[in-house]
Design brief:
single chain, alpha+beta, six-stranded antiparallel sheet, 19 strands, 19% strand
Length: 634
Amino acid sequence: MALAKSLRLPFRQLIKTYTVLISCGAVTCLTWAMVIVDRLNDRDQFIASARQTTANYAQVLEGQIRQTVLTIDQILVAVRFERDSLRWRDLYKKMALTSGLDKAIYNLSFFARDGGLTSTTISNANQNANISDRPWFIKSKATQNDTLYISSPVISRATNLLSSIFARGIWNDQGDFVGMVGISLNPEHFGSFYRRIPMGQRGIITLMGMDSTIFARATAAGVSYGQPASSPGMKRTLALAQDKKDHDTIYITTTEAIDGVAKVLSYRSLGEYGLVIAVGLAEDEVLAEFYEETKLVALTAFAFSVILIVLAVIGQRRARVINQQAQSLEDDAQRLKKQAVALELARKKAEEADRLKGDFIANMSHEFRTPLNAIIGFSSLMSDLNLKDQDRQSGLYLDGIQSAGSHLLNMVNDILDMAQLENGNLIFNRTHVDLVELIKGCAEITLPLRKEKSMPLKIEGDTNCLSYCDPDRVRQAVLNILSNSTKFSHNGTAVTIKIGRSNAKHVSILIADNGIGMTSEELTVAMTPFAQVSSGFTKTNGGTGLGLPLVRRLIECQNGSFSIHSVKGKGTTVIMTLPVDGGPVDGEEDVDIKESHCPGMPQLGCRPSLPGERIPQTPFFILKLDKTIAGVGL
């Protein structure tokens, strides 16, 4: 507990700290253990590869030695019984030349029973040479064993050259020993071949006899001949070779110290000839690459351990900070939870207030309608009773009352419709409607307003355009757009209406004017409920700001689509598309508005999508008009 207090951590955090530290130590130990095991395995693989390499070299050298000895023995056997004839010299030269040993062999000599030289292949030989004290001569004479004797390199008494002697005894028909025939071989025959084998700076190749004498020993420094074998490994090899009864071959792979340098050695024994060939590679050279890899692996493991420890320390410090932050976040979460509960209550209150507002607007709109209808009705009645003719001033008052009442009733109706749309309570009585007749009726209703501004109206389209819709709501939408086109256009400008099939399933109504138009920012405002674009026309004509949003909702609620395009100072085009059979407007290919615009009007650009607005994928269309609907005047 004292340690916990000193670290200023809770007991659980202290346990976590110790757990992390112990885990870090365990991972570090495991990492080093894996590195050590991996390095030991790699070392064994390097040693095994070196042993295989030396064994292969030893096998190749064994074949070379065996071939050389066998060839020399064949020459000795062939010529030893021809010493009294003249053909032994020719036979020797032919066989030596054929075998390729003619340059390696110094001479072939015959020796008498007493060891004296009787004949030889060289002219400047020491004629007084005597070999009676040579071990192999004494042994052959004593045992009368017809065996090939091979001596270690010695100074030949016939040639005074360092030679390896290969000799066989000669017996007469009665079995009496009569002398020996021998061949002096230059030891360089083996040494020159050994030098060509890559053994490194401290590798070694040794050919030695069973008497512990080295025939040839090749190193990077050079080749030596005739020294006794003093290495424990070589003595061990010779002992094993002597214990082998058949003296055929012995294969030993071991690691011994030769000349103070540890080597990986492979031995092969030529038991029938009393020879052993040894090939060794310096262990440090064999493992040089292994040592470099080990350094790199050890450095990597050390760096990993250091990084792990540093990360553990940093992690613990970070854990303390995170623990403090977690506690702070927990406090914040509790506080936010309380705030969320309060906000939920506020949201429910706001929703309830919004519902009450909608109900209030709907109820008040109904309450406004009754007195407004009475006011408009009585003012119309008084006008019909010719009170205007009796009193001119009273007539003007009656016209003002009727106009203001109608305007106020329209505003109340718009507010009521928008409220019902928002609440989902507006009912649509859909039936098949002739849109051409509906447009004609709307044109007649707006005729007085257009007459005041001397604005002509042109209606173009097919004579039979049926749509499955609510005629009252479509009429309300068309009147709203026509009213806006009239209000927000200059005197004398024209309004064009086009009606036609956009495809087999849809019919479209296009209303275009050459009015003041709107920018994209103003269009965004105009499409927002209860918002109005600030301009002189707006101040003059007033309104609630519900016209365009209400039209869009009325059309879309009947599976139709609504789009508006406007250019500031050039005019506005509204397209309302309705289904022929009541299906939704979707799955059609879009057509750019630039490809179809009102004749005689400037080309209009497309407006951007409004924030949060659902844009139906409704195509614009190219109206194919071949007739003008007659009967509609100014």
